[in-house]
């Protein structure tokens, strides 16, 4: 590889995710291989840590990668080991994604292919579900959002839970379930707000609204707590646990799956370090018989969902479409989006590489 450059972009959110989350940080990367092929990638983080990611890419990753192989699967582990003293996951893996995605983009562009075809496309479309960062919405605002998803053809939606009083969560779920009816799927996401006892008590109440999963009920680091909660839920409502957006390595995903602490894994392709480790996590999910739905970033994760194997008895991958949060919807892309979501179905649009370049 000849060179790697990175630049930090702040992308304002149309609908803030919280009072202090009004933008997302994108670190756009551009590399040139020694054969002249170019690739574009990115790292991403909401509000926190973008400057640190930019610094790692500019000062540590670029110098390490220069002169080394441009094969992402051959380079990734060495690059991860190089950064490991700064942390095995988190900021380091987020930064590595900027390199890994650009390498995959260059490899596909050099062959005039989309990345999904380079990897091996297994399906031409994936189901998409409506999602929103909406715990701070009033109940009327939440119901209106769910109605928009229904009107757009979604048959599955995800909303946030974790109000101080579970009765308020229950009231909101009842109102949402009334809009959805019995046949559409409702997923709920606590975003790490509960401890074990509160999660147990809350799910005893919220199970009445037939959620398809409970996402991140506890702190994402709490393996033991999730394993115990999974045991309790299996003995009562049978509602599965979903998590993974804040799990950063294949090793950690394997630990959660071996412990029975999670039934649905949701790796974020950027947070785990890019396509290379994401594909390994997908292999682990198949080995353990788990369902995998990639987290957020539909312009990227939708493309990868087209390539994923599915374990026997598991559900095919779905793409998460957060309202007004896609890069295309935010006006951040320099060109058309590489994916299209219509009637709750994600398909690719014509492009080469990843087809993701930022203004």
Q: What's this, in brief?
A:
This protein is of the alpha/beta class and 359 residues long. 38% of the residues lie in helices and 18% in strands.
Features:
single chain; 359 residues; alpha/beta; 10-stranded mixed β-sheet; 11 helices; 38% helix; globular
Blueprint (SSEs and pairs):
Layout: E1 3-12, E2 23-32, E3 38-45, H1 50-65, H2 72-83, H3 91-110, H4 115-119, E4 126-131, H5 139-151, E5 156-160, H6 166-180, E6 185-189, H7 196-206, E7 214-215, H8 223-235, E8 241-243, H9 250-258, E9 264-265, H10 275-287, E10 291-292, H11 298-305, E11 319-322, E12 339-342, E13 345-348
Parallel strand pairs: 4-5, 4-11, 5-6, 6-7, 7-8, 8-9, 9-10
Antiparallel strand pairs: 1-2, 2-3, 4-13, 12-13
Helix pairs in contact: 1-2, 1-3, 2-3, 5-6, 7-8, 9-10
SSE order: EEEHHHHEHEHEHEHEHEHEHEEE
Largest sheet: 10 strands, mixed
Percentage of helical residues?
A: 25-40%
> Could you report the average pLDDT, rounded to the nearest whole number?
97
Question: For the CA atoms, what is the radius of gyration?
Answer: 20 Å
Strand content: 15-25%
The stretches of 5 or more residues where confidence is low (pLDDT under 50) are none
**Count of DSSP helices?**
11
Find the count of extended strands (DSSP E, 2+ residues): 13
Q: For the record, give the distance between the C-alpha atoms at the N and C termini, rounded to a whole number.
A: 24 Å
Give the class from helix and strand content and strand pairing. alpha/beta
Task: Tell me the overall shape.
Answer: globular
């Amino acid at each position: 590889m000849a060179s790697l450059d990175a630049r930090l972009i702040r992308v304002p959110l149309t609908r803030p995710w919280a009072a202090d989350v009004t933008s997302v940080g994108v670190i756009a990367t551009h590399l040139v291989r020694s054969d002249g092929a170019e690739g574009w990638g990115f790292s991403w983080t909401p509000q926190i840590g973008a400057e640190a990611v930019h610094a790692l890419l500019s000062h540590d990753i670029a110098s390490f990668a220069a002169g080394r192989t441009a094969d992402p699967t051959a380079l990734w582990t060495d690059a991860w080991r190089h950064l490991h003293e700064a942390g095995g996951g988190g900021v380091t893996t987020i930064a590595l994604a900027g390199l890994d995605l650009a390498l995959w983009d260059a490899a596909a562009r050099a062959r005039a292919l989309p990345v999904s075809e380079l990897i091996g496309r297994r399906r031409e479309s994936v189901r998409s579900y409506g999602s929103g960062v909406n715990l701070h919405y009033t109940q009327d605002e939440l119901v209106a959002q769910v109605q928009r998803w229904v009107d757009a053809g979604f048959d599955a939606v995800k909303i946030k839970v974790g109000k101080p009083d579970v009765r308020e969560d229950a009231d909101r779920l009842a109102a949402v379930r009334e809009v959805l009816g019995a046949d559409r799927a409702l997923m709920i996401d606590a975003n790490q707000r509960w401890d074990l006892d509160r999660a147990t008590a809350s799910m005893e109440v919220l199970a009445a609204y037939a959620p398809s999963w409970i996402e991140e009920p506890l702190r994402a680091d709490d393996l033991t707590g999730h394993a115990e909660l999974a045991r309790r839920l299996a003995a009562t409502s049978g509602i599965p646990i979903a998590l993974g957006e804040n799990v950063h390595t294949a090793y950690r995903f394997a630990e959660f799956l071996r412990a029975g602490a999670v039934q649905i894994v949701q790796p974020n392709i950027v947070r785990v370090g890019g396509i290379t480790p994401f594909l390994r996590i997908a292999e682990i999910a198949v080995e353990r018989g788990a369902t995998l739905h990639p987290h957020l970033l539909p312009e990227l994760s939708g493309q990868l969902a087209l390539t994923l194997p599915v374990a026997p008895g598991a559900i095919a991958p779905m793409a998460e479409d957060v309202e007004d949060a896609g890069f295309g919807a935010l006006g951040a892309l320099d060109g058309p989006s590489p994916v299209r979501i219509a009637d709750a179905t994600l398909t690719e649009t014509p492009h080469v590489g990843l087809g993701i370049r930022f203004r």
